[in-house]
Amino acid sequence: VSTQSTGAVDGCAFCAPTHSNMGRCFIPTTADNCTDPTYYRTDDVCYSPYSWTLIAAMVFYIAMFATGIGTLAWTINSEIYPMWVRSYAISLSTLTNWMFNLLIAFTFLDLTRLLTKYGAFWMYSCVTIVGWLIFYFRLPETRGVPLEHVEQLFS
């Protein structure tokens, strides 16, 4: 399967197996190294002079997330468990967190094929909104409450 060229950006092209989205950018030469019939080639997905904006946006997002809501899950986890089970419960919640991260990483591509990219992110958005509503209405405020008395908020 071959895709017609629509004009390479800076003389590069993209070559990938037809059964996968994984591939590589390369500089096309007269001896084109994307001639395998099980591969496809396109010139539409190569680098742009505006690629730096995506990296800057990602750095800004990570910086804001890490200093804001990103720490919320770890802060809540360190406060809500009784002292007698705190270390075990935090380790179990950390395991759960990373297992769900792994699940999302493993299923994301299949989910985008099933629901489209937009559908996958709308699904994630809906799950996030439902989770936010549950926490907003069910999680008690612990500000100013000593750790020893937090257990009473949940009884």
Label this structure with key terms.
mainly alpha; 155 residues; elongated; three-stranded antiparallel beta sheet; disordered N terminus; 8% strand
Q: Could you give the order of strands across the largest sheet?
A: 2-1-3
Total beta-strand segments: 3
Structural class: mainly alpha
Q: Measured on Cα atoms, how large is the radius of gyration?
A: 24 Å
Largest sheet: 3 strands, antiparallel
Overall geometric form:
elongated
Overall mean confidence score, pLDDT: 79
Helix-strand sequence: EEEHHHH
- The proportion of strand residues reads 5-15%
The helix count comes to: 4
Share of helix, binned: 40-55%
How many angstroms separate the termini? 63 Å
Low-confidence stretches: 1-9
Write a short abstract of this structure.
The protein is mainly alpha-helical and 155 residues long. The chain is 54% helix and 8% strand. The protein starts with 12 loop residues before the first strand and ends with a helix.
